[in-house]
User: Which sequence fits this backbone?
């Protein structure tokens, strides 16, 4: 809660209610995602689930790019950073998370 308070506004009377509500909504949505994902992972592999997630994210990103226009890197180092973000910060963690979810389930499972 302290982190949430610092994120939405450290001033005693300040802060943005919308920011607080969005942060709480994100936590609730992620909790539902984990619980639903546990059931899904009993039927499919982590790779299959990840593929659906990444294709869906790619489709939404493509729609946003069609609306707002592309903002692509212009240098090789920019593309290298994008590639590293895709592999190191997205693909590996999502596959590992889903594989772990299939093995151990959500933390509160009985």
Assistant:
């Amino acid at each position: 809660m302290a982190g949430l308070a610092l994120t939405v506004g450290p001033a005693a009377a300040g802060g943005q209610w919308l920011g607080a509500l969005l942060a709480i909504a994100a936590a609730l949505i992620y909790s539902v995602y984990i619980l639903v994902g546990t059931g899904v992972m009993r039927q499919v592999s982590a790779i299959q689930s990840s593929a659906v997630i990444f294709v869906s994210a790619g489709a939404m990103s493509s729609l946003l790019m069609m609306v707002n226009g592309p903002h692509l890197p212009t240098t090789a180092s920019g593309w290298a950073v994008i590639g590293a973000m895709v592999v190191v910060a997205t693909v590996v963690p999502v596959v590992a998370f889903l594989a772990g979810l299939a093995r151990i389930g959500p933390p509160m499972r009985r």
About this structure: Residues 45-105 form one domain.
